[in-house]
């Protein structure tokens, strides 16, 4: 009962109530992911907890696309309901609760635009109506998730070994 997706997508412009546009800059979550205890909810409802980063049931990372999320859904009525709604395709998006700590405004266009450079992340939510259209959530099997992590670790190890071999060859040939 593992789900994965994106709670936020970099570079995607969204309208905030028609008052201004908002876009997330790459790196907006870098600092907060190092220290925050983030909760996962259903529809931003604090009484419907699905996971927590410090317990390991919520895993967050920032990549080139945005804020990647993986949640091990609990064996509760909410967890089972969320799973069913995702499997049926009724729910496909995510959202996040945050406090902006660094931003930039551009008021030269018809609609003001806020670029968010840094946030304090408080929560991520599986939602039926996300503010950012590019967010996503889908079922993942735990075995597939573990296999993907092993493959990523193996690829990283291969790169390290290749770099060591290249350095050794360069030293042998007197290039370094």
Automatic annotation (TrEMBL):
It comes from the Bacteria. GO terms for molecular function: peptidase activity. Coiled coil: none annotated. Keywords: Hydrolase, Protease, Viral release from host cell. The keyword Amino-acid biosynthesis does not apply. Residues 3-144 form the Prohead serine protease domain. It holds the Pfam family Peptidase_S78. One of its GO terms (biological process) is proteolysis. The keyword Chloroplast does not apply. NCBIfam families: proheadase_HK97. This is Phage head maturation protease.
